[in-house]
Amino acid sequence: MKRRNFVKKTVLSSMATLIGVDIVFGTTMPNGYQPIILQDPDPYKMFNKDKGMEVLNDRPWNIEAKAHLLNDKITPNKFMFIRNNGLIPENLESKTWTLTIDGESVKQQKTYTLADLKSKFTEYTYQLTLECGGNGRSEFDPPAKGNQWTVGAVSCAQWTGVRLRDILEDTGIKDNAVYIGYHAADTHLSGDPKKEPISRGVPMSKALQDETLLAYRMNGEDIPLAHGYPLRLVAGGWPASVSGKWVNRISIRNKIHDGTKMTGTAYRIPCESIAPGEKVKDEDMCIIESMPVKSLITYPKSGAMIDQGKKLDIRGHAWAGELEVTKMEYSIDFGATWKECPIEKPVNRLAWQHFSASVDFPKKGYYEVWAKATDSKGTSQPMILPGWNPKGYLNNACHRIAIKVK
Ligand SMILES: Nc1nc2c(c(=O)[nH]1)N[C@H]1C(S)=C(S)[C@@H](COP(=O)(O)O)O[C@H]1N2
Ligand SMILES: [Mo]
């Protein structure tokens, strides 16, 4: 009894230190109880995510989907991966939110409220594929540091907003403009307000595309906080790191944007392929632009069972960065032979495309279904892991699911 009280006292005082004030009725608190204020937040409730999503990190929050959760043609929030580099901003006010366009190559620096953006410019809606450059990282060997994404760091939601191009036309851009760089309201993990967790961008040619939006709605509603409320840059088909969340400033640069995570090994890969584990000189690293061709079997879930003699209907999505997917194939013999299956046109440029097939299995046993997409330039997904790179980007190897025929 004595010992229990003693333990409780020290626990109590350390809890009080964490809370910042005394726990008034602390001595009557059940032993082992954790005060609500100290309980870990439930990310599923906090972000409205499906329980099947996988939390990879909580500081910062990084959460991924599973292939079978991504079966919807338009990804709903509950199945959308979260990738944060810093801390989600708090107490955001859409009424007082402003976006400033500045930089060496802006003709006239301007600041817009959200109401200005909505009233001055034409609104557009596009479905846009956002895939983290590090999606698939978990398979690289030697392993790459960072979140160990499997296949679920990809989404294709519907984004509504105004064209960045129309805003830049309003401010004017100088002839020497090269790149845009975003700045956002999230904070660095260190708490240092002078440090940005991430500040990336795209060349002018990508910034000026029709589909490059400053979005204020996702799937017809305000953007969920974790995905960039109240304003987000969306540039589909490129590593999703260029799609800045919580954006409050865009700089028009007269050089390649040099913000946080634009240099070194961040979102850059060796310009020429190298051996796994090999060191690369800084000047031999190239910024990732359009994402490579890729596909995902989203139905059925891997491990499904089917009765002999029945056909298995499979479904999934395929995407190819700036390009379109023009051919879709599947294999049930570990890639020895392939059968073509239909692939739909995208609803708009930079949206993922849907495929389906009805698969026949010759007899009882274990099978794998592999899927392979080919883009409009004739490039296909590799069957095995593509080029190793220091940070484990761009793994677009064929997706596979296991099937048992009984
Ligand atoms: N401001 C800000 N924007 C950001 C990030 C971030 O940490 N801060 N992460 C980037 C990265 S690396 C990715 S993959 C996407 C993820 O978008 P999502 O969380 O909406 O899925 O947001 C990008 N935009
Ligand atoms: Mo990312």
Automatic annotation (TrEMBL):
Where do the Oxidoreductase molybdopterin-binding domain residues begin and end?
88-259
Fetch the InterPro entries from UniProt.
Ig_E-set, MoCF_OxRdtse_dimer, Mopterin_OxRdtase_euk, OxRdtase_Mopterin-bd_dom, OxRdtase_Mopterin-bd_sf
Q: What PANTHER family does the annotation carry?
A: SULFITE OXIDASE, MITOCHONDRIAL, SULFITE REDUCTASE
List, for all copies, the residue spans of the domain called Moybdenum cofactor oxidoreductase dimerisation: 287-405
The name this protein goes by in its record: Sulfite oxidase
Cofactors (names): Mo-molybdopterin
Pfam families found in the cross-reference section: Mo-co_dimer, Oxidored_molyb
Q: From which domain of life does this come?
A: Bacteria
> What keyword terms does UniProt attach to this protein?
Metal-binding, Molybdenum, Oxidoreductase
